[in-house]
Amino acid sequence: MHLTAKVGPEEHRMLAAWTTPAELALFDAQHVADRRHGLDVVAYLRAAGVTDRDVLAAGLLHDCAKGDIGAGPRIAWSLGERFGPEVLVPARLVPGWAAALDRLRVHADASAELLAAAGLPPRAVELVRRQDDPAGLEDGAIFKAADEAC
């Protein structure tokens, strides 16, 4: 998906109808794979009956601080999540991957800060900050399910 992700012009026009200019700027600054993932998360949330605009915006932008991280570090990160952090030790030796892996490690907090700076409400910011463990947050379970399914 990382290498073949696309976002069509009609999808972008539809976003402009419900996002703020600051939110749309965060969306546009993301790697195309993260933009596609955010759109898919929003579609999942809507299909599950979520209509709260703040939850939808959080779903759209929850990975906005990842930056332009290549497929290799993303695969290594996923393997590390599945098999343990020792998988990342040799991955960090690949030139350029250590910084990318560090961005992946802190992206939830960094994305939350970008959302706060863009004026999103605390509820959306907290969903993004706690995206890996949203237990106890309103809509946290469906938010995590959407992220994992997409």
Low-confidence stretches: none
**N-to-C series of helices and strands:** HHHHHHHHH
Largest pleated sheet? none
Structural class by helix and strand composition: mainly alpha
Helix content: 55-70%
Total beta-strand segments: 0
Q: What global shape is seen?
A: globular
Helix segment tally: 9
Cα Rg: 15 Å
Mean pLDDT: 95
Number of domains as seen in the coordinates: 1
Structure description:
Helix 3 (32-47) packs across helix 9 (140-149), helix 4 (53-61) runs parallel beside helix 8 (122-129) and helix 7 packs antiparallel against helix 8 (122-129). The protein has helices at residues 9-16, 21-29, 32-47, 53-61, 71-83, 88-91, 97-117, 122-129, 140-149. Helix content is 65%, strand content 0%. The chain contains 9 helices and no strands. The protein has 150 residues and is an all-alpha fold. The N and C termini lie close together (10 Å). The protein has one domain (9-149). The longest helix has 21 residues, at 97-117.
Q: What is this structure's SSE topology?
A:
Blueprint: H1 9-16, H2 21-29, H3 32-47, H4 53-61, H5 71-83, H6 88-91, H7 97-117, H8 122-129, H9 140-149
Helix pairs in contact: 3-4, 3-9, 4-8, 5-7, 7-8
